[in-house]
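PROTOCOL LOG
Step 1. Enter all chains and additional molecules of the complex.
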Amino acid sequence: MAQIKESVTKNETTKQLTLIQAINDGMRLLLEEDDRTIILGEDIGKNGGVFRATEGLQETFGDDRVVDTPLSEAGIIGTSIGLAVNGFRPIAEIQFLGFIYPAYEQIMTHVSRIRMRSMSRFTVPMVIRAPYGAGIRAPEIHSDSTETLFTHMPGIKVVCPSNPYDAKGLLIAAMEDPDPVLVLEPMKNYRSKREEVPVGKYTVEIGKGKIVREGTDVTLIAWGAMISIAEKAAELAAQKGISCEIIDLRTLYPIDRDIIVNSVKKTTRAVIIHEAQNTGGLGNDIVSIINDTAFLYLRAPIERITGFDVPVPFFALEEHYLPTPARVVEGIEKVVHF
Amino acid sequence: MEDNYPIKRIIDDQGYLVDTGFEKQIDEQLVQDLYYHMLRIRTFDRKAINLQRQGRLGTYAPFEGQEAAQVGSALALKTGDWVFPTYRDHGATITFGKSMARTFLYWNGRVEGCVAPQDRNIFPPAVPIATQLPHAAGAAWAEQRRGTQNAAIAYFGDGATSEGDFHEGLNFASVFKVPVVFFNQNNRYAISVPIEKQMNSETIAQKSVAYGIPGVRIDGNDCFAVYFETKKAFDNARAGNGPTLIEAVTWRKGAHTTADDPSKYRPEKQGEDIVDPLARLELFMKNYGYWNAEWIQATKDKTSSEVDAAVEEMEKYPPPNLEDVFNHVYAEMPAQLVEQKESYLAHLGRR
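Step 2. Run joint prediction.
Step 3. Record the structure below.
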C-alpha cells in the first residue's frame, strides 16, 4: 500500500494500479462514501482476501463493515439479500467463481427475482464479486468460467473487466446500479499489468463495450482474460497483412449490441473468443446478435474460438483448453480467406 | 433428547391451564385476539379449498391444524419486524397485516399476491425450501446495525431442517448474534415424508445446541404457549441476545396442497387424537369465563363477511397487466427486453 501512496504524490489525479489494486481502491472509496456499504466474504478480513482484494480494508473500516463470514456461499448471498432489502449495500465476495454453486439457488431464485416477485417493493441492489478463469495453474475447480449461468438468468447484470481502469469503474457502476450485478474478475489479469487509474470516483457504464483496437478486416469479440489473447492474435494477424478490430465487451448482460453490429458491418467478418465451454457459451448469443442485425454484411461464417465442452482440465493441460493466439489467428485466417 | 426438550404447554387438550404462571398475563383482549385471528384464517383456509374445488383458485397449500402456531407467533410481532414466510404461512402473514384478497390473488397465479402493505415488512413466500432463513438473518443483521429494536422471524417446516440453508441461516445468525427468531412448525410431514424419515434427531429444538443458541420445543397447537414463547424469544432478540430456535409441534390436518392426496401415505387414523387448536381455545374460553356467545356469533359473522369480501375483491380485481411480466425484472428495462416486449405486443396487435 505504501507504494500506491508514493505514486499518488507524484500524480494527484491518477495512480499506477494493477487490476486487483483497482478493485481494492474502488471498494475503499465505496466504504468511505457510504455507510451502507458492507463487504462480506471468506478470509477477507485480516487476511485481506485470498487475492488481497480487501487488503487493509478491515483495518480501516472495522470488522462490522468488512466481515469475515463463515465458510458458506449460500449464507453469504442469503444474508446479503436480507441486508440489501433492509437498506444496506452489500459487496459479497465469492472466493472463486467455481465455488459459487452452493449460492446458485439463492442467486437464481431470490437475488435475480425478488424485484419481480414483489413488483419492485423489495429490491436487492448488491454486488457479487468473483474471480474466474483458467491459466494461473490453480487447483481444479478454481478455474471455471461459467458466466452464461448468469447471463441466462433474468434479473441480474454481469460485467467482466479486463483491465484496472475498467475494473474500478465497473465496480463503482455496479454499486450504483439499482439491480444486482455480478462482477467477474479475470484472475489471470489481476497482476498482469499496471496502468493509470483515476484516484477519485468514476464509472464505466454498464452495458457498453469498448473498441480497444481499431481495424478493418475482421472484428474480434472478447472479454476479461481473453482480451490479451485477442491482442496478441491481432498482432500476429497484422504481420500477415490482416487488420483486426477488437471489442472488449466489458458487460456480458445486457450486451452492447450496437458496438458489435457497427463493427461487424464495417469489417464484415467476426471471430468470437471466450474461454468458457462452447455449447451454451455467450459466443452463441453474439452469433445471434450478428445474425439478427448484420447477416447480409457478412462475407464469411462467424468463427468461435472457445474452450471445449469439457470441465476445465487440471492445470497440467489447461493451456490446451484455453484459446491461444495461434488458434485465434487460424480463426481469423479462416474468415478472411473464406 | 426428548427429555431435554419437553414440549411446553400452557393449556392442555381440555383447555385447562397446566402452567399457571401465565394466568395473570392472559386477559380478555389476548384471548379474543387469538380467537378472532384463528377463526379468521381458518375461514380463509377453508374458503380457499372450496374455491380451488370450484375452479376459482389455483393449487392451494392449506394450513388447517396450524392456526395456533401461525396466529400465536404472528401476534407476538411488532409493526417494524420482518417476516419471512413459506407458502404455507399465509395464516401468519394475514394475521400480521397482509390483505386476504392479495393472498387469494397469490394462489390464483397473480404476482400482486406477493405484495404486502408498505408498512409491513413481509417477504414474498419462500417457495424453495429453507432459503428464507439466511434472508431473515440478513434483515435482522441490518436492524442490529442500525440499532433499532426491530427483529425478524423466519417460518419454516420440518422438511426445511434437512436443507443446507437451514444450517447456513442459523449459523450466520448465531455467529453474528442477530435478532431473529427461527420459528419451526413441525407438522410432521414434508409432503409425504414423515419426520422420522426426515431426520435421526428426536427433536428439532435440540439442533439449537449446535449453534449455541436457545432452543425451545412447544405445543404448537396451544396458542398461549406459542404466543408467550415467541414473545420471549423476541424479547431476547431485541435485548441483543441473538437468535432462538422454536420448534412448534403441530399437525398438518389436510393435504400438502390441493393437488395432493395424503391417504396415499398417511395411516388412516393418524392425527385423530390431536385436539384441534381452535377447539382447544374454545374449551379454555368456556373453562375460564371468556365464553360470550354473543361475541362468538358476532366474530363468526365478522370473519365470514371479511373472507367473502376478500373473495369478491379477488374476483373483481383488475385483470393482470401483461406489461408486469417485463416491467419488474430490472429497474430499467435492457434494450433486449424492450425489443422482446415490443415484438410480442406487436404480434398480439396483429392477431
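Step 4. Note key features.
Chain A is about 35% helix and 20% strand.
The mean pLDDT of chain A is 96.
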